[in-house]
Amino acid sequence: MSEKLLVPDIGEFERVEIIELLVKPGDQINLNDPVVTIESDKSSVEIPSTVSGTIESINVKVGDKVSMGDLLLSIETSKESPSEKPIPKDTESIIKQAESVLKNEKKEETIQQKPVEEKKQTIIQVTNNNDIDPLETQDWLESLSAVVAKDGNQRAHFLIKELINKAYREGANIPYTQHTPYINTIPPEAEVKSNGDQNIERRIRSLIRWNAAAMVVRANKKFPELGGHIGTFASAATLYDVGMNHFWRAKNNKFGGDLVYFQGHSAPGVYARAFLEGRLNEKQLDSFRQEVKPGGLSSYPHPWLMPKFWQFPTVSMGLGPMLAIYQARYMKYLINRGLIKDEGRKVWAFLGDGEMDEPESLGAIGLAAREKLDNLIFVVNCNLQRLDGPVRGNGKIIQELEGSFRGAGWNVIKVIWGSYWDSLIASDKTGHLVKVMNETVDGEYQAMKARDGAYVRERFFGKYPETQELVSSLSDKDIWRLNRGGHDPHKVYAAYDQASKNQGSPTVIIAKTIKGYGMGKTGESVNTTHQTKKLDVDDLLYYRDRFDVPLTDEQVKNVEYFKPDEKSLEIKYIKEKRMRLGGPLPERTTYSKPIKAPAKDIFDFMKVSTGEKKMSTTMALVRMFTNLLRDKNVSPRLVPIIPDEARTFGMEGFFQKIGIYAHEGQKYEPEDSAQLSSYREDKSGQVLEEGINEAGAMSSWIAAATSYTNHDIEMIPIYIFYSMFGFQRIGDLAWAGGDSQARGFLIGATAGRTTLAGEGLQHQDGHSHLIASTIPNCVSYDPTFHYELAVIFREGLRRMHEKNENIFYYITTMNENYSHPSMPKDKNCEEGILKGMYKIKEFNRYGKTKIQLLGSGTILREMMAAAEVLQDVYQIDSEIWSVTSFNELRKEGMEVERYNLLNPDKEQKVSFVEQCLGKTEGPIMAASDYMRMNSDQIRPYTNKSFYSLGTDGYGRSDTRQNLRKFFEVDKEHIVAYGLSVLAKEQLIASKYAKEAIKKYNIDGSKPMPTKL
Ligand SMILES: Cc1ncc(C[n+]2csc(CCOP(=O)(O)OP(=O)(O)O)c2C)c(N)n1
Ligand SMILES: [Mg+2]
User: Fold this and answer.
1) CA triple 258-259-261, angle to 5 deg
2) Whole-number pLDDT of residue 261
3) What local confidence, expressed as pLDDT, does residue 89 receive?
4) 386 lines ligand 1 (CB under 6 A)
5) Whose atoms come closest to the Cα of 229: which ligand?
6) 381 CB under 6 A from ligand 1?
7) Which residue among 262, 316, 317, 391 is best mutated to probe the pocket of ligand 1, counting the most ligand atoms within 8 A of its Cβ?
8) Which portions of the chain are predicted below pLDDT 50?
């Protein structure tokens, strides 16, 4: 039977052009195979077939304009089988809804059927002075206890929720609280116990503590300028040790590995453990923070500097938490797309409590909960201090964080008190102990640990007679021994165990510790702890005694490291533990296979002129992507990342074609479901649609761009954004991306100070290339024409994803529509495009005076137009150079210059800029849609006279023409300034320049645009 394929609903567009026929008569096609590509003035999209069969006839040709309902082609369908008919969207969503209801019903059933756990009750009653009827309170509490005992927590929770709902409906405004009492979340009887040998583990931990401190002290003895931190790791040692001994599984040939984001300032502790494990030697420890000579240990986790060790750069506060969240989300993305196995891998991130004040630290926690990232565990080391002083002297950081995380939907585990407190808390029948705990602020908690047991007795327990009584049989020493949860391996183990098993939500472990734990009077819990990098002999002796490190006084004075014999129990134990967990950690390895770059001719369609057809480079980019999606090697590896601008860039066609990643699929019928480019969310969707969240989008990009090492699968992330909201907004993340050795594309769309016309000051980008140039492994381009873009992009694919160079690309694209010429036939053109410049046009009519015009981005076109005027009106010849990258030219120029300086006796090399321009005639004038500094970059690498024009100053909204006039990069200014340059070089009389200035109404009294 013959079916007619019509143009579907394409939104508001009419008479869109057919730009490609993807089938011919006689072709066999399947349902959803693309048959033609159509293009509006903003975007191109493929039309899929709605049936399977054989193409009978095609009713359109390339160049035809079509609208909704027009006949495209006829298809002879194979015998109709019901399964081939697409299920109408409405029906499909009804089925999905029904399925999800069924699932939910099942879930509820399981909850109800869950056997009720008989639990020993430890009722902690928080005393409240405002209780007007304690007996009634008692009744209610007993009822609740009875429910918990008989029907379990779920039931109790249900009843409480119903009570609150009822009160709310009856008008009672019950204040909602996100806080639980200031005690551990896991009660002692629910703690899962570690099977580790606690004595050995303590000894190992002590040695790690000692060696970590020693390496900092030794480095600073040698070179006091090196700096370093002891206090951070001292507070976190137990948190790391329990993970290392029992939880964190390494990557090996059987398992993908857990991913651990270590807190930057605790690096010495990580090195110290690697030393005991035999991964680092004394010489290496002694080169802590001395990285210039190979083999030195980097100050903080930097994969660029220690590419076989560190996986994640974390030291810029706030980036670690954000990157970890998006890493966990990306892991699920890879799983849901079927690209990696679900092995239950986890992402652990260690964070400082001070660090949690960074907006980035908490900025993405909502996403983590929404996406149900149960593969994510945050551990916040609450030592109550940051650099200058307390994190929350007047409040309680643990409670505050609990509120934020609970509110966002995380599983929160507070680890506040160590085991020595258990019996005290159990004996707190009146609830006064918990009351004091709740009332005491962090400033007091910190001060207490800087004092002694007597002080704690007086200031803490002394607050109420009931609490005083509780500790009456304890000595001051006993009171001093009451430990904090984050230093108690049992409590930490129980928390890690629960976190690892938690399902359906991310977990945060909020652990209370002491900054500079064990460092004694000069370094423990004092405001200056963070900066302490030198310990005097007394401090060192105290530290040794505090942790029973088997060193003599002499050895302590020499700050010697201590490593037990290879055959010792400690070394055997530590190695065996890691062996059981799959190997060492952290370790950065890469087993991914390269992706074969697409055939050289894949973008050949972009090397021919577009003729009359005008398009922007952004649109050319979308055309290119559409083609890439047909390459079977590349297509599945593409990760398009967009922060809510797909429509701005004409990329909405991707929604249907490859789907938007959504871990829950699509639970609703989208408003535009009947349209060709309707909003399609899918569990295996490919696009990461990040919403208005550039930092999140960049974090996703980094996760995908380092997939080759963290997941052993090479991926091609392409993050496309408003260029102004790129480097300027997320510069620090881009820097971390470079450190991480990211491979992928950043596309700064709607670029150029005068090209994005109407949006104004905050949107118009005239400097992103300069920021990009600050990142050593970022390769950046500012192409003008579609073939340049094609050559650059394919080379990027080849260099990064086939040859595995650790670089990333920044390419700007624009939204100005113009026609694109064919690629020049010159065989060196491609090489020039990639190196940064090539001659695109030459005017040689008069043979008298010449000028070299260098332009990039859309301003190249102003140059070309100006060259015509210079020739036609002023009889000036010119050569026009398309500069695709001032940044790349500068890099090459620097290298050549350096070589020449280093080799004064050898034949001097010639920079590529000079190779292009050295033998040309006339001075050089360069311009771009960026600040003059952009083109000025190559000034030193040519011996010729060089002048720059550019868009220095704040942008503002107006037409492109007016903006270019304002910034003096329009064709008229280029002509006038060109003549001035020639006059200055004494090649023509100055009157021509003067006349031109007058003719083009150039106001010489107008101040520099930077001042306007
Ligand atoms: C973005 C950023 N700002 C400032 C710093 C400097 N800095 C390093 S550590 C630190 C204090 C950290 O306190 P906290 O997060 O509580 O960690 P702790 O050492 O107490 O575990 C500061 C301000 C930095 N590394 N990164
Ligand atoms: Mg802190």
Assistant:
1) 145
2) 98
3) 57
4) yes
5) 1
6) yes
7) 317
8) 81-85, 105-119, 121-124
